[in-house]
Amino acid sequence: MGMVGGGPSAFIGEVHRMAARLDDRIELVCGAFSSDPYVSVSFGKELGLEEARCYGDYQEMIQKERMLPEGKRMDFISIVTPNHLHYAPAKLALDNGFHVLSDKPATLNLDEAVSLKEAVNKSGLIYGLTHNYTGYPMVKEARHLIRSGKLGKIRKVVAEYPQGWLSTKLEDQGHKQALWRADPQKAGLGGSLGDIGTHAENLTEYITGLGIDELFADVSTLVEGRALDDDTNILVRFNNGARGVFYCSQVSLGEENALAIRIYGTKASIEWKQMEPNTLLLKYLDKPTEIFRTGHQYLSESAQKASRIPPGHPEGFIGGFANLYSNFAKAVSDFKTGNYKEIGEYDFPTITDAVRGMQFIETTIESHKKKTWTKMNNLEL
């Protein structure tokens, strides 16, 4: 693996590095870690990389790695930069024969996402997106229960992701993570919508298998003077006739990372909370609630595979990322040995999810501006 971004002051870069090395399937061999070439090279050396493979920028990394013999050069790049720096390195890597695993959202806007999908299709290479919550064991169990018919027909979905860390105008205090997230040139059209709202959208479509048909959005900026949204509420209609409510907020004071989803069917319902990740509730109309817990043999094969430790120990954030990295590594390994299957067999978000996320952001903003129900862009995915 080569890494783009994730330098000394980055939060998510170290998360990706920990996740990538957790299963001993991936080795970080090179990187362009900072927009400052000196910082990039120095940080790479601190990580124990060969100085010759600590690069000043991603263009140099991709071009020089391409010249190395197979077996020596990197196999894929991991992109862990702010949103506006996702598209260019991904496109360049694909054009030069390297697979791509990127942080979300995939691009700054929908046009870039569509262009990137074309590049993926043209290259025949593998593209993955780190919507890490899909890697949690109980999320996979929820998906299994729905696919096995336990809930019957889905009628309603409630997905929420409240945080409180942007309840004050941190971007005016030089807070690095707040600065780029509040800048439309770096974050894109969505503030809280792009940062955490896309998790609610992706998690819902992953678990239920449903697609959003249309939505009605109220997009708000509640901290005065902020350039992007910090609170969004959305009514949703799905392609099977189900109804839904999405809520994402970064000004819900006192909240941490309270992602939660409730899915109601004709036979039963399920509930999962990211801050209590080991537990999944299956609820009925006329009998007691069933409690599913990680690490047990009664779980589905996909949930057991995603579980890493015995029952009772917390499964979560790093493990979710690691499951995506492990599945992606399996796909790349199979690609190299000629044993590659259909991409859906590997269970990680793909370029289709990437485009879908950008459709969701832009449709939400359009709905808010028009103050009407708005169809998701029906692109051929």
Q: In terms of topology, how is this protein built?
A:
Elements: E1 2-5, H1 12-21, E2 30-32, H2 37-46, H3 58-67, E3 76-80, H4 87-95, E4 99-102, H5 110-123, E5 127-129, H6 137-147, E6 154-162, H7 176-181, H8 184-187, H9 192-208, E7 212-220, E8 231-238, E9 243-249, E10 260-265, E11 269-273, E12 279-283, E13 290-293, H10 301-306, H11 317-337, H12 351-370, E14 374-375
Parallel strand pairs: 1-2, 1-3, 3-4, 4-5, 6-9
Antiparallel strand pairs: 6-10, 7-8, 7-14, 8-9, 10-11, 11-12, 12-13
Helix pairs in contact: 1-11, 4-5, 5-12, 6-9, 9-12
Can you describe this structure in just a few lines?
With 381 residues, the chain is an alpha/beta fold. The chain is built from twelve helices and 14 strands.
Structure write-up:
With 381 residues, the chain is of the alpha/beta class. It contains 12 helices and 14 strands. The protein is globular, with a radius of gyration of 21 Å. The protein starts with a strand and ends in a 6-residue tail after the last strand.
Would you tell me the overall average pLDDT? 96
Distance between the termini: 28 Å
DSSP helical segment count: 12
Order of helices and strands: EHEHHEHEHEHEHHHEEEEEEEHHHE
Strand order of the largest sheet: 13-12-11-10-6-9-8-7-14
State the secondary-structure class. alpha/beta
Low-pLDDT runs: none
